[in-house]
Write a structure and sequence with these properties.
Blueprint lengths: L1 H11 L1 H13 L5 H4 L4 H31 L26 H17 L2 H30 L1 H9 L13
Helix pairs in contact: 2-5, 2-6, 4-5, 5-6, 6-7
Length: 168
């Protein structure tokens, strides 16, 4: 039953963000290679970098899903959240590595497909999450986990490892 809960949350959230929306955006877009002639070495470097972002982002995302299941005893979905605060693994360095993983997948797709539309979708995804985390997610975590979350938030930055005062 736990696997089904995780699959449902993954299908409804990250799959929509990283597959459904990009496919919809790409439907009418011509590849950048058709309009801009890049050297073969630049095109290859873009492909390699895109693949690294995509694989790295997917691996980070999956690691976080496993931590949510095993440590947090919940899923990534707001309707089935973790029951314990997850502050191990990549969560020791930033408070939102799962979103960073999804952003990595989107960056990889934008680079692999050389797509300005997907790059714009990545930027919008980041802005949406910044607003959501500040207005909804973090106040909810503070209500659920109280002082434990306040200490964690004070020590661990939001997005950028090593930034000060836990707000990065």
């Amino acid at each position: 039953m736990m696997i089904l809960r995780h699959l449902l949350s993954i299908l409804l959230l990250p799959v929509v963000v990283t597959i459904v929306v990009p496919r919809w955006l790409q439907h009418a877009e011509l590849p950048l290679a058709d309009s801009v002639h890049a050297s073969a070495s630049v095109a290859l470097a873009t492909q390699i970098l895109g693949a690294l972002f995509l694989v790295g982002g997917a691996a980070l995302f999956l690691w976080c899903v496993v931590l949510f299941a095993n440590v947090g005893k919940g899923t990534l979905a707001p309707w089935d959240p973790t029951r314990r605060l997850v502050a191990v693994g990549p969560y020791r360095f930033v408070r939102n590595p799962m979103i960073s993983g999804v952003a990595g997948v989107l960056a990889g797709e934008a680079l692999l497909l050389r797509s300005p539309r997907l790059a714009a979708w990545l930027a919008l995804f980041i802005v949406i999450n910044e607003v959501y985390f500040r207005l909804v997610e973090e106040p909810g975590l503070e209500r659920r986990f109280g002082e434990e979350y306040r200490r964690y938030r004070a020590l661990v930055p939001r997005w950028i490892p090593g930034s000060r005062n836990g707000v990065g």
